[in-house]
Write a structure and sequence with these properties.
The chain contains 9 helices and 8 strands. It is of the alpha/beta class and 299 residues long. The protein has 2 domains: 190 residues, no CATH class; 43 residues, no CATH class. A 4-stranded mixed beta sheet has the order 5-3-4-7. Strands 1-8 form a two-stranded parallel sheet. Strand 3 and strand 4 form a beta hairpin. Helix 1 packs antiparallel against helix 9.
Length: 299
């Protein structure tokens, strides 16, 4: 079968571009990780009674959510400059110089499928990258989880995107009602700390040695104005963003230093408000695992 000629030059085919913004992304992720540790320490200190309430919770959460969100647009710009612009016509280059090109990271299918968006060019000039972006979008739509990361599915990324865009990522409220109640447990012999929500307390609490009604302490929950749990959402953002940045930069750019997904909860066991989580991160009813592979061509 005769191969059709591409509608634009494949000038960067076979080579990988330099990851111009990766160092900045690494620094931002490390900072967000440190801020998440601070957030956890503040909440735990308030649960222990060492302070009345967590300090600067809204400001810390805002830093984490906006910082991890920015990483995606930095990756998007690296994709545009490294993969899309080389070999592009003057019209597209001029639109980029004038700031008229839509370079935001493609969270939605239309940003890949519609020719007016620059990421559509990847279908011809870097198909492996196009396929991986498409699969990430599909995984987000279906709310798949990332292998090795317990917690929310990837649709949560769209929730965070909306919160940051609408400037609602710093509005933190304190909840003490029964439906929002959390329970705090600390085991003295090894320093194990558990924070359980009311929906998992009864079903999973018995699996933690030494935990019973006498050792549990009722504590308030902290949520954003849209109901998202602060501790849980910030942890998801740090973990998922680190994983996705490593995935795309490792596969589609020249070799560069990477941030390993560190254990950001040392000697600390957290059970967020999700029925799929078990003790020590063992899934009880796991969601489909996101394993990025090249999609089967549609007939």
């Amino acid at each position: 079968m005769k191969r059709q000629k591409a509608p634009f030059p494949l000038s960067n085919f076979g080579s990988l571009p330099s990851p111009k913004r990766k160092l900045g992304i690494n620094e931002k992720l490390l900072y967000c990780q440190s801020q998440y540790m601070t957030l956890m320490k503040e909440i735990i200190a308030s649960y222990r009674g060492q302070i009345d309430s967590p300090r600067y919770l809204g400001q810390i959460a805002e830093t984490i959510l906006s910082g991890t969100r920015e990483c995606f647009d930095h990756l998007g710009m690296d994709i545009i400059e490294g993969h899309v612009l080389p070999g592009a016509d003057e019209k597209l280059r001029r639109a980029f110089r004038l700031g008229r090109l839509k370079t935001y990271f493609p969270f939605f299918r239309s940003q890949l499928e519609q020719p007016k968006f620059p990421f559509h060019r990847l279908k011809q000039i870097r198909r492996s990258l196009y396929d991986e972006l498409e699969l990430l979008i599909e995984a987000t739509e279906q709310n798949f989880a990332i292998e090795g990361l317990s917690g929310d599915g990837l649709k949560t990324l769209l929730v965070v995107r909306k919160m940051v865009n609408e400037k609602k990522h710093s509005h933190v409220l304190r909840y003490e009602g029964q439906s929002q109640q959390k329970y705090f447990f600390e085991r003295a012999r090894d320093g194990l700390v558990c924070v359980l929500t009311s929906d998992v307390r009864g079903t999973l609490g018995h699996r933690i040695e030494g935990l019973d009604e006498a050792t549990l302490k009722s504590v308030p929950g902290y949520r954003f104005s849209n109901g998202q749990d602060v501790w849980h959402l910030c942890g998801f953002c740090v973990g998922a963003t680190t994983w996705i940045m490593n995935r795309f930069y490792d596969r589609h750019f020249q070799s560069s230093p990477r941030i390993e997904l560190q254990d950001i909860t040392p000697s600390l066991q957290v059970l967020p408000p999700s029925p799929i989580l078990g003790v020590h991160g063992v899934p009880v009813d796991p969601r489909p695992t996101l394993v990025i592979t090249k999609p089967t061509p549609k007939k």
